[in-house]
Amino acid sequence: MMSPQDAWDALLDGPQRVTVAMPNPALWRSLSEATKAANESGEALAQAAAPQAPTVMVTQNGDVTTAPIEAQLLEGQALAAQVQVMPRPRVGEIILLSLIALGEGGPGQAGPIVLSQVMHSLSVIGLDAEVRALALEAVVAAGL
Description:
This protein is mostly helical. The protein has helices at 4-13, 25-49, 69-85, 91-102, 112-124, 128-141; strands spanning 56-58, 64-66. Among the domains are: 50-86, no CATH class; 88-144, no CATH class. Helix 2 packs antiparallel against helix 3 (69-85) and helix 2 (25-49) packs parallel to helix 5. The longest helix has 25 residues, at 25-49. The two termini are 33 Å apart.
């Protein structure tokens, strides 16, 4: 029986060796960095839009008061509306780099690692419908 290491070595060096075409390393790094920046920006925007607990104040005579909840809700709704209007940074860059990474063959001929990164990058910038369409195109091209 073959040890796990021997089996792994046979896959890497034997006739079953599978190679995956990867895009230029500079392109790959640029796409990864743009995705990371957009993700961090989106998390910061989400934290800014999160509702905050009512402010509690204690007066000198010991009474506990809070700021009016209606005012806080209106402020939170206005902030959430601003966050929805604010575009995520680097959207155009991510789309362009994703198209270049997919290559002329598109998602049907892209390797699984490249396709996964492109789909993740596009979902970070909010293009979920387009990600599903890419996944469907890749599945159909694979004959599944």
